């Protein structure tokens, strides 16, 4: 049966919209197409679904890099690989502690649900490698021209920021105007992220999700050297 969520306007002030349900393909695609995402509050509680107001986004036109990071990119020999290490990337995100979070929200339900979504072509990953060692990365959802950044991690300083820079390059190349970050963390804010109203967000979502673009079309390059990102990000 089709999954039916409550109207997003009925969400609590914290953005909580619904409780329960499974992370199957139909439910996840229905949720993201309506501006809703899963965010477990504990391992032993039913799944919780959110649609916050305001919503965190990172517009490609606002994305900027600090001078120190540009210098780092120029001298880096790391490699970004696309969609060849999804399970390792999501596990890396799950095993990472963050200052703004008490614990990981990426439980086994999230891992299995989004891995299945990846296998069906609606999720992606960017892994950052030093030689053959995975040292950082991010994963997210991609439906048409809508792209979200669900989580990222690093084992070496700047690795997650390199992954995000690579993602913003691919979005810019395909004229996708924003990345859904769901919330604005200090890292996202420093790169140009901002909060917008849920009403504005839903209009942006509607324009992007209705236009077909496959994962293979968006992430058609198998890898990019991180020291090439400066040139690529500055290209028109």
What attributes characterize this protein structure?
three-stranded antiparallel sheet, 236 residues, alpha+beta, six-stranded antiparallel sheet
Could you give a quick summary of the protein structure above?
The protein is α+β, with helices and mostly antiparallel strands and 236 residues long. It contains nine helices and twelve strands. The longest helix is centred in the last third of the chain and has 15 residues, at 159-173.
Report the span from N to C terminus: 45 Å
Shape by Cα distribution: globular
Number of strands: 12
Rg calculated over all Cα atoms:
17 Å
Order of helices and strands: EHEEEHEHHEEEEHEHEHHEH
Contiguous low-pLDDT stretches (5 residues minimum) are none
In percent, how helical is the residue content?
Answer: 25-40%
Structural class from helices and strands? alpha+beta
Q: Largest sheet, described in full? A: 6 strands, antiparallel
Approximately what portion of the residues adopt beta-strand conformation? 15-25%
- Let me know the average pLDDT: 93
Number of helices: 9
Could you walk me through the main structural features you see in this protein, from its secondary elements to its overall organization?
- This protein has 236 residues and is an alpha+beta fold.
- Helices cover 34% and strands 23% of the residues.
- Strands 5, 6, 7, 8, 9 and 12 form a 6-stranded antiparallel β-sheet that branches. It has a 3-stranded antiparallel β-sheet with strand order 1-3-2, covered by helices on one side.
- The chain is globular.
- The relative contact order is 0.19.
């Amino acid at each position: 049966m089709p999954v039916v969520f409550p109207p997003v306007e009925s969400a609590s002030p914290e953005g909580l919209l619904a409780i329960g349900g499974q992370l199957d393909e139909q439910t996840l695609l229905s949720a993201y197409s309506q501006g809703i995402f899963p965010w477990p509050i504990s391992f032993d509680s039913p799944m919780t679904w959110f649609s916050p107001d305001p919503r965190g986004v990172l517009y490609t036109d606002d994305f900027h890099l600090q001078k120190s990071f540009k210098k780092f990119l120029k001298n880096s020999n790391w490699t970004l690989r696309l969609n060849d290490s999804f399970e390792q990337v999501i596990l890396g995100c799950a095993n990472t502690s963050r200052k703004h979070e008490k614990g990981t929200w990426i439980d086994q339900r999230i891992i299995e649900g989004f891995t299945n979504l990846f296998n069906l072509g609606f999720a992606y990953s960017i892994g950052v490698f030093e030689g053959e060692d995975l040292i950082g990365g991010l994963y997210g959802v991609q439906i048409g021209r809508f792209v979200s950044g669900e989580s990222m991690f690093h084992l070496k300083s700047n690795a997650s920021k390199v992954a995000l820079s690579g993602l913003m390059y691919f979005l810019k190349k395909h004229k996708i105007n924003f990345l859904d970050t769901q919330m604005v963390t200090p890292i996202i804010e420093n790169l140009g992220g901002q909060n917008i109203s849920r009403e504005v967000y839903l209009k942006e979502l509607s324009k992007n999700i209705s236009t077909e673009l496959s994962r293979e079309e968006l992430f058609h390059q198998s890898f990019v050297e991180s020291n090439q990102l400066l040139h690529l990000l500055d290209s028109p």
